[in-house]
Amino acid sequence: MRSLNLDQLRTLIEVAALGNFSAAARRLNLTQPAVSLHIRELEHRFGVRLIERMGSRAYATSPGRELVERASRILVECDGTDAAMRRFHDGWIGTVHIGTTLTALTYQLPPILKKLRREHPGIDLLVTNMPTRDSVENVMKNAIDLALVTLPVKAARLRVTPLRAESLVAIFPSGQADIPDEVTPDYVARQSLVLEHSRGAVHALVTQWLAKHLPLQRTPMHIGTVEAMKRIVASNLGMSIVPDVAVADSGPDLVVRPLKPRLPCTLALVEHRNKPRDLALDLVRAALLELKDLEADAAHASVDSGQDTTMAFSLARKSKSKSKARLHAL
């Protein structure tokens, strides 16, 4: 038996929809005899009547309606196939779905995404903001391809690549008096505290850091984004603990202090160990790994200048006006 003729299926759909052979011929830019021939050939192929005439109208029979429904799905798939192949012909490479923490999306990803779009316009990038735990779950379910997360992450099925070693720092409103040079858990436990939402990785790190002082004397305020947390603090509603990258340019409204003991906050790239390789994924992965190169360059520059990577805080501790200094994490 010969393969189905897509032109004949299109003709059947139009005749059934318009109820008229002449109208279908005009829609398809065919002659009316050609439309009639298409219908006869389909009926001969299947051995059933597909169209019946009642006066001047043409109606699909029960088998005809069934074939119209199936033919519509076939043509949708065919049109999609044509579109997909045209995209490859025009330079399309593939689609990559990235999950990311809001901090990474706000402060670190934009130049990477811009570079990817410029150098590889044939890659469709889908970026979704989600907490670390959600990213891990989605990578393991193969719902997303790659994720930028905050360590620690423990999952045997994941490949975890640390990218940037950051630190959490304390921020205060600029008008607050008697801010210590180094902020301890004991001090934080006595303050009005603005924290990241409870599903966030930073929230978990801070909670662990404060473990000996829980429950806190005052109920913390939970806010969804770091930028909103900074605004709340600047409004003199409390202090907060945020990644240092978020206060690289804190402005005059905030005072930044290091934590004691230090609280690391490491950005990492995670992917499933058994994820099949493809060109689009490899290109996006390589671009994200540049975050690690940037970290190495920053550390090298600090060593060359005779300062460590916590330069801003080291200088602050040596300053004679430490309690009044407004620090800006570099």
Mean pLDDT: 86
Q: Regarding CATH, which class of the largest domain?
A: Alpha Beta
Describe the sheet with the most strands: 9 strands, mixed
CATH topology of the largest domain, what is it called? D-Maltodextrin-Binding Protein, domain 2
What is the strand and helix layout of this fold?
Elements: H1 6-18, H2 21-28, H3 32-46, E1 51-54, E2 57-60, H4 62-89, E3 94-100, H5 102-107, H6 109-119, E4 123-129, H7 132-140, E5 146-150, E6 158-173, H8 185-188, E7 193-196, H9 201-209, E8 221-223, H10 226-234, E9 239-243, E10 254-258, E11 264-272, H11 279-304, H12 311-318
Parallel strand pairs: 3-4, 3-5, 7-8, 7-9
Antiparallel strand pairs: 1-2, 5-11, 6-9, 6-10, 6-11
Helix pairs in contact: 1-2, 1-3, 1-4, 2-3, 6-11
Summarize the structure in words:
Helix 1 packs across helix 3 and helix 2 packs across helix 3. Strands 3, 4, 5, 6, 7, 8, 9, 10 and 11 form a nine-stranded mixed β-sheet that branches. This protein has a two-stranded antiparallel ribbon with strand order 1-2. The protein is 44% helix and 21% strand. The protein folds into three domains: 84 residues, Orthogonal Bundle (Arc Repressor Mutant, subunit A); 108 residues, Periplasmic binding protein-like II (D-Maltodextrin-Binding Protein, domain 2), CATH 3.40.190; 117 residues, 3-Layer(aba) Sandwich (D-Maltodextrin-Binding Protein, domain 2). It is elongated, with a radius of gyration of 31 Å. It is an alpha/beta fold and 330 residues long.
